[in-house]
């Protein structure tokens, strides 16, 4: 008896992924560095399917049918390198080694190159959906060679979430493409969570609703165009009462948001690629601000308003602002995928990415089907905001959007996500940007030159001379 696929690293994600394979009828080899976890898996879930437990790396590899397919589910970083070091010498040319962790895409590129030299297909696969997704159907974003996907893809598609019968798994592109897309997924996740959190704050501090009342508002929103996993779980969290104190759960949690790094990577990468992902950046910075207890402690007494008495229709305005800001955040994230794809020659199908995010992953939402449709209309759209449907919706939402940002500003409620999304929208719409003045300043102090609107060429004004003559520098 040989296994169709194997999983090493039986933490919650690895264990649930292995169970998912088994539940779909695949004989699955399971291995963990410390054997206790393998035994625990067999005891608790061994009856769910055909598991082949292995006590050593050698036994694990020997139990896999050729070409071998094995998934590494350990912590990103050095732990992943250590596991690759351990297993690669046991594999043969043509075997497929999958990294299902949240690896940095540059690590994946490095590992893919090194393993390709040894004839091994290294597949960096983004897997989203948390514990439940891994077990019941995640969204899977596999990179690597097409050849590897031919034999691995059908198995991954089988265990992935399905929406309208379509699997939430598709080939992304060579080497680091899968982990790049997963990284941007997480960046968008940060932005989406921040926008939802700002909506909550506006309803709480601006309209004086209670957490359970706000949960109801979110539940209503979840029946419309904002229908998504994140809105759904937000309602759950807001309606929960703390067992110990009887207070709303959200009031007993320390208001400092943590992060494991994928949002930060997204922004760092976007800066290098020159992609303005303002929504994701604001979300990362908002978490950072929340964590600066020292600064917040000394600044708490600074003067300014702290709340308002906004009327009941305010919630509708917030819904519009949230939707418009969300469109902006997703548009920015998809631009980053477009830029990464161009930079590394990955040829990523943006519509396919929207398709596999419709289910299984943390940002799963009804809305993603509209993004899929937008890219179906124009696969190379410069921005999703110019898609006729999104343009009409955001256009219709903008009065409320502006009102909400104004009301928040007057009330002293921080809305970095809403405000920066609106500024991004206005910057893209603008006939002229003050960037022209910035160019003038740069030329003044550093002779950094500028281009003119009326003729070709690169120019410099000799600011130090009395009549400030202009010279062409590229002639
Ligand atoms: C997913 C999630 C997951 C990650 C969370 C937490 O797609 O299933 O993105 O990969 O654990 O995003 O990330 P932070 O700790 O950085 O908030």
UniProtKB/TrEMBL annotation:
<dbReference type="Pfam" id="PF00393">
    <property type="entry name" value="6PGD"/>
</dbReference>
<comment type="similarity">
    <text>Belongs to the 6-phosphogluconate dehydrogenase family.</text>
</comment>
<comment type="function">
    <text>Catalyzes the oxidative decarboxylation of 6-phosphogluconate to ribulose 5-phosphate and CO(2), with concomitant reduction of NADP to NADPH.</text>
</comment>
<dbReference type="GO" id="GO:0004616">
    <property type="term" value="F:phosphogluconate dehydrogenase (decarboxylating) activity"/>
</dbReference>
<keyword id="KW-0570">Pentose shunt</keyword>
<dbReference type="InterPro" id="IPR006114">
    <property type="entry name" value="6PGDH_C"/>
</dbReference>
<dbReference type="InterPro" id="IPR008927">
    <property type="entry name" value="6-PGluconate_DH-like_C_sf"/>
</dbReference>
<keyword id="KW-0311">Gluconate utilization</keyword>
<dbReference type="Pfam" id="PF03446">
    <property type="entry name" value="NAD_binding_2"/>
</dbReference>
<dbReference type="InterPro" id="IPR006184">
    <property type="entry name" value="6PGdom_BS"/>
</dbReference>
<keyword id="KW-0521">NADP</keyword>
<protein>
    <recommendedName>
        <fullName>6-phosphogluconate dehydrogenase, decarboxylating</fullName>
        <ecNumber>1.1.1.44</ecNumber>
    </recommendedName>
</protein>
<dbReference type="InterPro" id="IPR006115">
    <property type="entry name" value="6PGDH_NADP-bd"/>
</dbReference>
<dbReference type="InterPro" id="IPR013328">
    <property type="entry name" value="6PGD_dom2"/>
</dbReference>
<comment type="subunit">
    <text>Homodimer.</text>
</comment>
<dbReference type="InterPro" id="IPR006183">
    <property type="entry name" value="Pgluconate_DH"/>
</dbReference>
<feature type="domain" description="6-phosphogluconate dehydrogenase C-terminal">
    <location>
        <begin position="178"/>
        <end position="464"/>
    </location>
</feature>
<comment type="pathway">
    <text>Carbohydrate degradation; pentose phosphate pathway; D-ribulose 5-phosphate from D-glucose 6-phosphate (oxidative stage): step 3/3.</text>
</comment>
<dbReference type="InterPro" id="IPR006113">
    <property type="entry name" value="6PGDH_Gnd/GntZ"/>
</dbReference>
<dbReference type="InterPro" id="IPR036291">
    <property type="entry name" value="NAD(P)-bd_dom_sf"/>
</dbReference>
<keyword id="KW-0560">Oxidoreductase</keyword>
